[in-house]
Amino acid sequence: MAEEETLNGLKVEQLRGCTDDLKDNPDAGRYIFRAKNKWISGAHCHTTIKGFWAGGQEDTSRARAHLVEGDEPTSLLGSNYGPNATEALLHALGTCLNMSFIFHAAAQGVKIDELEFELEGDLDLNGFMGVNEDVPSNFQQIRVKCKVKSDAPREKLEELCEYAQKRSPVFNTVSRPVPVDVTLETAGVEAASATG
User: Fold this and answer.
1) Which residues are registered as beta bridge partners of 192?
2) Which one of 45, 130, 160, 196 counts the least CB within 10 Å of its CB?
């Protein structure tokens, strides 16, 4: 029995099979991912990620939960137990662009030797701290540098970089407004909902 071809660490036929399955059954592509964030002390909190809903049923394939620490640097009154939320957002964006690039490169038969994304985000704390209401609390700009080593022609690598942006869920979430519904639950008080 021949071993299944791999490219960029991915099983190519399995990857193509996933795409074909989605064409036949679009509902299989519907996922609900979850995260539970809990405050520890000061700026320190952690997020637990385990189960998710996939294609019509609960997915319990993860044997253990992933734990992601969150904190602030000491200059922002934290204890450095983990990256702050804006750094974690840059991590999520870089991870999603990386996977989008690699998956589509493998699907198109393009071998990638090295791939790296460098990300920077400009943030003005005058908005977060409420010092200046005219300053937004979000990143004012995010810069991403894609560094790739491959024998593929530059035009193909540019095409993959653009395609990664087009297909990355995190890139599209941060570059377009997305409705966020926040519900407050307190002990002994009816839940109140606020949408932002």
Assistant:
1) 184
2) 196
Backbone angles phi, psi at 44, to 5 degrees: -80, 130
Residue 60, classed as helix, strand or coil, is: coil
Q: What is the mean pLDDT of each run of 10 residues along the chain (196 residues)?
A: 78 83 85 95 97 92 96 95 97 98 95 97 93 93 97 98 97 94 80 55
DSSP secondary structure string for all residues of 63-99: SS-EEEEE---GGGT---SS--HHHHHHHHHHHHHHH
Judge whether 52 lies within some domain.
no
Please state, in angstroms and rounded to a whole number, the distance separating the CA atoms of residues 90 and 85.
Answer: 9
The answer to whether position 62 is within a domain reads: no
The SS3 of residue 54 is: strand
The domain in which residue 28 lies consists of 6-33+83-195
- Whether residue 77 is contained in a domain is answered as no
Q: How many residues does the chain have?
A: 196
Is residue 127 in some structural domain? yes
Q: Determine contact, residues 48/64, Cβ cutoff 8 Å.
A: no
